[in-house]
Amino acid sequence: MRHVERVVVLALDGVYPFELGIPSRIFGAADGRYEVVTCTVDGKPVRSNADFSVMVERGPEVLRTADTVVIPPVTPASVTAELPAEVTAALAQIRPGTRIVSICTGAFVLAAAGLLEGRRATTHWQLADHFRRMFPHVALDPDVLFVDDDPILTSAGAASGVDACLHIVRKDHGSALANSVARRCVVPPWRDGGQAQYIEHPVPGPTTTGTAATRQWALERLGEPLALADLAGHARMSLRTFARRFGDEVGMSPGRWLIQQRVARARQLLESSDLPVDQIAGEVGFATGASLRQHLHAAIGVSPQAYRRTFQTAR
Predict the structure, then answer these.
(1) Separation between Cα atoms, residue 15 and residue 32, nearest integer Å
(2) What distance in Å separates the CA atoms of residue 224 and residue 219, rounded to the nearest whole number?
(3) Angstrom distance (rounded) from CA 20 to CA 50
(4) Cα-based distances in Å from 247 to 189, 201, 218, 222, 243
(5) How far is Cα of residue 161 from the mean position of the Cα atoms in its chain?
(6) Where are the domains of the chain?
(7) Distance (Å, whole) CA 159 – CA 19
(8) Which of 7, 39, 178, 299 could form a disulfide linkage to 169, CB 3.0–4.6 angstroms apart?
(9) What is the CATH number of domain 5-185?
(10) How far apart are CA 284 and CA 269, in angstroms?
(11) pLDDT by residue (tens digit) across 85-144?
(12) How far apart are CA 135 and CA 300, in angstroms?
């Protein structure tokens, strides 16, 4: 029988309902690999930041059974440098080594509990200065979607919680399952944790042409040498216009985006096939196996062989 990971979501007073539901929605779509339960610090209802309260069936004792604990965000005004005694007591139930995930202002809770001391972390970009003043010993990076400083993972606001949970599914079970979960939930299958939190998307005019069709065209041709001129030509734009519009829509240059997509595809092939590294490099558009090794190491800090070994062991 396969192990079912227990994910315990701790709902605190002032919890944001949208983010509270993310773990159940994402992990619940992972083919029974996870069990998601929700608790509060005393087993009683908590107020949300909306016009309703949240009823739960469990108290803090279930935190002792967790493989992963998720702390959704709470109203920023309710966050202090010192936690209420009942929150501290609840967090003390978490076993050492348990994976802990925060979404948005949930990072304030972890920092106040001393769990982020000396670690890299992130939170919502609008609260970065406030966080730094409160917790100067945390290495805050406010420009990214999430930070995985194993076994603690912190994520930015709202939808970045989806990215963080998909990252966990991918890390635990591979890209195929994570992509399947993303399709079921109708969300992007992969946004790199290092992607910028805040991208200003100008509202396009009614006749403005975007780059989405060209991005899909490129994804179907990753094994081919794709230059900026090829992409701009497909989009029927000048090089300058295409690069500007691509940056507005995606938040990065076309070249960086292509590298990210090629690395993502290479990870899928490393997980699901026994193809040699040099052949995988060619399949995804890297000139050599050395180039793939360089880009994979830059993205996730490991070699192709080590990455493949990790997932073969998991299987």
Answers:
(1) 26
(2) 10
(3) 12
(4) 20, 9, 16, 19, 6
(5) 6
(6) 5-185, 203-315
(7) 8
(8) 178
(9) 3.40.50.880
(10) 9
(11) 999 999 999 999 999 999 999 999 999 999 999 999 999 999 999 999 999 999 999 888
(12) 27
**218 CB-side CA count, 13 A:** 26
Contact 145, 127 (CB under 8 A): no
Quick one: CATH architecture of 203-315?
Answer: Orthogonal Bundle (1.10)
Q: What is the chain written as a DSSP string?
A: -PPPEEEEEEPPTTB-HHHHHHHHHHHTTSTTSEEEEEE-SSSS-EEBSSSSEE--S--GGGGGG-SEEEE--B-GGG--SS--HHHHHHHTTSPTT-EEEEETTHHHHHHHTTTTTT-EE---GGGHHHHHHH-TTSEE-TTBSEEEETTEEEE-STTHHHHHHHHHHHHHH-HHHHHHHHHHHTS-S---TTSBS----PPPPTT---SHHHHHHHHTTTTS---HHHHHHHHT--HHHHHHHHHHHHSS-HHHHHHHHHHHHHHHHHHH----HHHHHHHHT-SSHHHHHHHHHHHHSS-HHHHHHHHHHH-
SS3 of 143-170:
CECEEEECCEEEECCCCHHHHHHHHHHH
Is there a contact between 26 and 72 (Cβ–Cβ < 8 Å)? no
The packing angle between helices 228-235 and 239-250, to 10°, is: 90
**What does the pLDDT look like over 198-241, one tens digit per residue?**
555 555 555 557 898 999 999 999 999 999 999 999 999 999 99
Q: Which two tokens stand for residue 104?
A: 């948005």
The tokens for 10 are 């701790």
CA angle at 192 for the pair 149 and 308, rounded to the nearest 5°: 75
Global pTM reads 0.78
Would you give the distance in Å from CA 134 to the centre of its chain? 25
Q: What angle do CA 82, 197, 35 make, to 5 degrees?
A: 65
Q: Which two tokens mark 179?
A: 């992509």
